[in-house]
Design a protein that fits this description.
- There is one protein chain.
- The protein is α+β, with helices and mostly antiparallel strands.
- Helices cover about 50% and strands about 20% of the residues.
- The strands form two sheets. It has a six-stranded antiparallel β-sheet with strand order 4-5-3-6-7-8.
- Helix 1 runs antiparallel to helix 2, helix 2 runs antiparallel to helix 3 and helix 5 packs antiparallel against helix 6.
- The longest helix has 25 residues.
- The radius of gyration is 26 Å and the shape is elongated.
- Its main location: membrane.
- Keywords: Cell membrane, Membrane, Transmembrane, Transmembrane helix.
- It is a multi-pass membrane protein.
Length: about 250
């Protein structure tokens, strides 16, 4: 029987540990950025794909010399690539016009590929891929935010008492802070009691462009203290009845 179908326990252990380390590096960045799939998820995916790759290559070595058996080391690995999609899809969320979790889904998928490389003994490729993934997640992320700072839209939801002039006042406050309104949707949102009188509530969903996040915060600070404003919410924070409340959400 050819030695190509055999692996020592030591080498197998090294590959599993290396997979845990490489997957953990990517997962640590996701964990640090407060995303849905973090350190443990990425480690488990990388170890799992490595184990499946090892099984696919070395797990059936005793059948290699059987006359009616054809060994395909890539067969189980192919199932990992197609099957990991369900886990990545679980990290993708859509809130209104905003889709988040795409980067984390991609990182889970690429960690599975790194694990397959480690399991197959393609160690240089695994390490190189890990380095490139970390560069993409850390360095390119900052560069992308800098380049796209004036092009990306932010979604803000403001609930108001349906009174004349309230929407115009909000639009004026955005304009004074250099914030461009791309789109606005108005949806009825029930009734509320104001000074003993039932008033209609309207939800305003704005798509905005701002050069800096600080300008949006400043504008919402001003708007939240205006009359007939019930609450303001954005992707990164919310203010209810004029008082700010931290509201962090996962973004790819």
């Amino acid at each position: 029987m050819s030695s190509v179908w055999h692996i020592t326990d030591l080498e197998l252990t090294i590959r599993i540990l290396l997979a845990a380390g490489l997957g953990g590096l990517v997962g640590l960045e996701r964990e640090w950025s407060n995303h849905a799939a973090g350190l443990r998820t990425h480690i488990l995916v990388c170890i799992g794909s490595t184990a499946i790759m090892l099984l696919s290559i070395y797990g059936f070595s005793e059948f290699v010399n059987e006359p009616q058996v054809r060994v395909d080391p890539a067969r189980l690995a192919a199932q990992v690539i197609s099957g990991i999609g369900f886990l990545g899809a679980g990290t993708i969320m859509r809130t209104g016009l905003t889709v988040s979790g795409l980067t984390t889904a991609a990182s889970v998928w690429v960690v599975a590929a790194i694990g397959l490389c480690v399991g197959a003994g393609f160690l240089y490729c695994a390490v190189l891929a890990t380095v490139m993934v970390l560069l993409s997640l850390v360095v390119l992320n900052k560069w992308e935010k800098y380049l796209m700072r004036n092009r990306r839209t932010m979604e803000v939801v403001i609930k108001i008492v349906d009174k004349p002039g309230v929407l115009g006042n909000i639009a004026t406050k955005f304009g004074e802070n250099g914030i461009h309104i791309v789109n606005v949707q108005m949806n009825p949102d029930g009734m509320t009691e104001v000074d003993g009188v039932l008033e209609a509530v309207v939800e305003l969903r704005f798509s905005l462009k701002a050069s800096q996040g600080e300008t949006l915060i400043k504008a919402l600070d001003t708007i939240s203290t205006s009359g007939h404003i019930l609450s303001t919410e954005s992707k990164t924070f919310s203010m209810v009845s004029g008082s700010r409340k931290s509201s962090r959400h996962a973004v790819g």
